[in-house]
Amino acid sequence: MSSIEIDTVSMHYTLPNGGSVHALDNVALDIRQGELVSILGPSGCGKTTLLNIVAGFLAPSGGAVRVDGQRVTGPGPDRGMVFQQGALFEWLSVERNVSFGPDMAGKKKSQTAARVAELLKVVGLTGFESKPVYQLSGGMQQRVALARCLANDPGVILMDEPLGALDALTREKMQGLVLRLWKETGKTIMLITHSVEEALLLGERLIIMAPRPGRIVKEYRLDFAEQALKQDPRKVKATQEFVRTREEVLSMIWSMEEAIMGHDAVTETASA
Ligand SMILES: Nc1ncnc2c1ncn2[C@@H]1O[C@H](COP(=O)(O)OP(=O)(O)O)[C@@H](O)[C@H]1O
Ligand SMILES: [Mg+2]
Q1: Worst-scoring range by mean pLDDT, 52-56, 95-99, 238-242, 254-258?
Q2: Which atom of ligand 1 is least distant from the CA of 41?
Q3: How confident is the model at residue 83 (pLDDT cuts 50, 70, 90)?
Q4: Ligand 1 — pocket residues by CB below 6 A?
Q5: Residues 22-47 as b or e (16 or more Cβ within 10 Å = b)
Q6: Residue 215 CA to ligand 2 centre (angstroms)
Q7: Which pLDDT score, from 0 to 100, does residue 166 have?
Q8: pLDDT for position 263
Q9: How far apart are alpha carbons 167 and 142 in whole angstroms?
Q10: Which residue has its alpha carbon closest to ligand 1 atom 8?
């Protein structure tokens, strides 16, 4: 299990025209071992950039990320990613997708087979082992993606809009699955989502980011995830406290989006 320390991370992208984008400004965040943190913010506020820096796909322009005290300098098996879609090998079977990591790592086939069977049971895909992934629905594919990530047994799981492409009902079911997996495996999870409901329901802590430059503007401690483990998540979403917090967060995000649109209108007029 792993803790994550995001130590005043900044990111500037250099553009081909010589300009630059200030994508992250001094982002500081400590995530304790086994914590589930959700991150919410209007598009362009640097969520994906931050996750890619923690994953080690991008090097920050300033600051550092440490996982269990070790500075991140590239991708590693201690951190698993789950993307919105498209990261599976569609022509391979469910089983081969899930065993891909352990196979690459040279793990014994017999051990891997038992582990894969167990994981497919956890995500409700027993019986689909030999199906090629392209034949599965979107929700099932995301369950394969979760199982594949868990097969590598990373201490940290990084999720970028993992349920974003699913229909509403499937998405609700998958939220329950993510909650259960988090509870059962004790993984440290960073979850990026566009859905305020999802962020509130799943996060023990909710981080709100704002753009230009991307930064953290507010943080909530929440116990809806704990509640949703004990009762129907839909009931939790209907509680007064949930609805009140949802409205508060929604208006915050809306006003940021309005400010962005105003900003764009001004820049467009200026450059017209
Ligand atoms: N490779 C890149 N080159 C230049 N600018 C980028 C690149 N990736 C992202 N950006 C810019 O950085 C900002 C943050 O982007 P991103 O991290 O994708 O935000 P989010 O995931 O919150 O929508 C945006 O203004 C985006 O246009
Ligand atoms: Mg993004």
Answers
A1: 254-258
A2: 22
A3: confident
A4: 13, 15, 21, 23, 41, 43-49, 214
A5: bbbbebebebeebbbbbbbbbebbbb
A6: 14
A7: 85
A8: 64
A9: 12
A10: 49
Helix (H) or strand (E) holding 158: strand 156-160
User: What is the per-residue pLDDT for 271?
Assistant: 45
Give 4 Cα–ligand 1 centroid separation in angstroms: 22
Q: What percent of the chain has pLDDT over 90?
A: 75
In a domain, 89, yes or no: no
Distance (Å, rounded) from C-alpha 242 to C-alpha 255? 20
b/e map 214-245, b = 16+ CB within 10 Å: bbbeeebebebbebbeeeebeebbeeeebeeb
> Does residue 120 form part of some domain?
no
Residue from 17, 48, 161 whose mutation best tests the ligand 1 pocket (most atoms within 8 A of CB): 48
pTM of the complete model = 0.91
Q: What is the extent of the structural domain holding 240?
A: 4-78+158-166+190-271
User: 142: closest CA among 118, 176, 101?
Assistant: 176
Among all ligands shown, which has an atom nearest to the Cα of 50? 1
Total domain count for the chain? Answer: 1
Residue 109 lies in a domain: no
List the CATH number of the domain containing 29: 3.40.50.300
Average pLDDT along the chain: 91
Lowest-confidence segment of 59-73, 146-160, 162-176 by average pLDDT: 162-176
Is 72 a domain residue? yes
- Rounded CA-CA distance 39/195 in Å is 10
Task: Give the phi and the psi of residue 112 in degrees, each rounded to 5.
Answer: -60, -45
Sheet holding 79-82, edge to edge: 79-82, 156-160, 188-192, 36-40, 205-210, 215-221
Contact 211, 45 (CB under 8 A): yes
